[in-house]
Amino acid sequence: MAHTLRIECLVQWLAGLACALTLVGVPTASAQDLPPLGHETVAAELSADVAAALFGADGNLRVVRDTGDVPGWTVTGPDGILLGHVGSTWEIARSVGYSGRPIEMLVAISPTGKILAAELVHHAEPILTLGLSDEDIARFVGAFAGVDLAAPRASAEAAEQSAPDIISRATVSTGVIRDGILRTGRTLAIARGAIDAGRIDRTSFAPTEWDVLVAEGAVAQVRTTRNEAAEALAGAKVPVSPGDGVFLDLWVAIVDPPTIGQNLLGQKLFTRAVGGLGAGEVALFVGSQGIQSHRGTAWKKSHVFDRLAVIQGEKRYTLTDEGYIRVDRLALENAPQMKERSIFQLGDGFDPVAPFRVEVTATRPSADGSDLTHVTAADYHLPETYVLAPPPAPEPLWQTTWRTKRLTVVGVGVMIGVLTLMLFAQEALVARPRLWRGFRYGFLATTLIWLGWGVNGQLSVVQVVAFLQSLLTGFRWETFLIEPVIFTLWSFVALGLLFWGRGVYCGWLCPFGALQELTNVLAQRLGVRQIAVPQAVHERLWTIKYTLFIAILALSFYSMEAAISLAEAEPFKTAISLRMVRAWPFVLFVLVVLAAGLFIERFYCRYICPLGAALAIPAKLKIFDWLHRRPQCGRECRLCEERCTVGAIDRVGRINPNECVLCLRCQVIYNDPGTCPTLLKRARSAEARQAAIEAARAKRETKAPTP
Question: Is the pTM of this model over 0.70?
Fold first, then answer.
């Protein structure tokens, strides 16, 4: 029962740990108290001065807050000309780093759908303050100016090429920033009509006839008879004479597509109708026949066509004489007779590809002084034939990175596969000391050079802490999937903890661990004397790494920035991710740690590594024990204890799973009859026994009577 409970706890821990898949060093900025997910945006207001800086304009700019599904700001110049729109990546895209905290940038777009400027406002990812200047960050974020949001991925590549090496090595950082800017800019541009997203086809033209336009729905028609109007307006002072005649025959069409508008109006009038349209405006054709006019006469004084209204969703649009064009005749010869023909302009957020309704209201005063009304409504939906397919949305960043790094992921998978096969067949390897030595040092060299320096496959305690933070502030798979190498490694490590404990990573797949071991091997061959740490001191020094891990974890609940600053106790970022291209204090720390490792093998792994401590916590709960021991180990023989890479074997021969890095050195000794004292003793005993048998046999033969 207790064993089952332990396994269940382990599985839960592994399920969580497998998701902690981000990269050492992610984008950051400077701020202490950041709002969690769901909090009001940091950039609650956009000042005119900030807007002027974004648009590079002088003078008093007018900034208007836009609310709705896509919030932001509209910026116009002193002369009233639209300069563009501004959006917050936190408000629109909910961009967060692996710390689970907002990364907020302001993105300014032009009326034509290009990014004019991008500015970092707030973040809590300290890699951008640990080793980077504000100018570096501003240069990377600002380099997205000029990106064409109609084709954002291709034009954004140039922006990333300008990234400092310290940023480009932190791929999750660049990914989160880039994805936040592009998604925000594109969403804002579509919402403000700066780029087409399923908009009207305004270029294609094909000659057609009236009947075809009506049949496909390009022209909508509705009819009200005099009988219907007489019934609705019964009691009016001036009643409608009943009959089968037409009270109102109404035709409606969006004329922006040339196939509709040019065929209906002719080239000259069509050009006039659409040439005067402003950004986000469309031309609406309304024609009518019957005793009811869709225009009336009051509009000549009020400038408003009070009989007409366009309803789309919950919004009602009133038509005015601004942009109004009277049409005397239609260009199509087979068009029906119409008493009135009009072109109106529609804007103010009207969506021409969404369904809408055009209503003509007939009003008659009644005998009691009230007004009686009758509405003739034509429903219209622009046929898909005249709607451009929306430009494809940018592929999710994590999918892009997995596709572009597929060969790298395959390489990591091959390493993991080879390591797994070796661990399952370890008895065959450790029985051959020279083969084990060649395999181990070759694998560690691959881990350091290719996995570490080559593809940046170094895990970190920051990722463990960041995963826990993301669970509290809003977990998102996309953030953790951005870096395929790290995701793949963490997935295997989580499963490996179940089978082999922490050593599957620390002993074989940790680039910095490989660097320590290989430099120590070189030091020993050069005759560097090794320091044997007394067991009592050795065991007490273990508390450093566990205390450090708990401190980082606890501090993260107060300040993620402070926690990641403390996590600089890990030299991984400097030595592996950034290849020593960093400020001198960080480089000096790495050199000190490596120098200590020349005298005490894997010094950092033994006493300081907080990631090792984090992985060691569930190590005793592993289900299988693949390392063999004999009753004589630690009693009659202590050779394995003396030669253990990290001092994980105690005085009585037990292997501490919290400290073991699974190097298999003890198993090589265990199986080597020329090294293991127990096997040597057994061999000597066997030889002595055989010699005694031979002596006894010879003695019997000499005493035998002669026949």
Answer: no
